[in-house]
Fold:
Amino acid sequence: MKTVKIPSFFRELFGDTQRWFEIIATLCFAVFATAIVLVSTLNMWVELGIIKMSLLILLYLDITGGLIANLSFGTNQYYSASVKRRLVFIAIHIQPLLLAYIFHDIIWICIGVWGYTIFSTLLVNNYYGHESQRVLGGFLLFSGLIGLLLIQEIPVVAQILLIFFMIKVIFSFGVNHYESR
Structure:
C-alpha cells in the first residue's frame, strides 16, 4: 500500500505518514457511523436545537474518526515517538464534558465516564511497551463499558458516543498496537 506524507495540520489525526487505505477507512467510518446514529436516533437530535445538534455531530465525527485513526500504524507511530504528545493527547479529550452541556441531565455520568477514561488511559500509558499493556487496556475498557451499559437513564445517542469515546481513548489510543513482543 502506498503511504502519503501528512500535512502538519492533520498530523495529530494521522501522524507523519499514513496509508491511503487507513485515511479512507477513517473518513468513511466517521461519516458512516455519524450518519447511521443520526438517522436512527433523529427524534432525540431534533429536540436539541441547531447549536447543540451541530456540536453533537462534530463530537460524533471527531470520536468515530479518532476511533479508527488511532488504530492505524501512522498515528500509533506518531504518538509512540513522544511521551509529551501522548500526555497532551490524553489531556485534551474533554468530549464527555461537552456532551454534558448537550444533555445536562446526565452531567454526572459524563463527568464519571470522562474521569474513568482519563484515569484508565493514563494507567495504560504507564505500561507503554510492557507486554501486558493490551490486556490491561482491554480489562479497563470492558470494565468501564459494563458500568456504562448498566446505567439506564442515558439517552441512547449519548450512550453510543460515550462507548465510542472509551474505546477511542482507552484502547485505540492508549494501547501501542504495533509493539513487537
About this structure: The radius of gyration is 16 Å. The chain has one domain: 3-173. The beta strands are 3-5, 17-19. The longest strand covers residues 3-5.
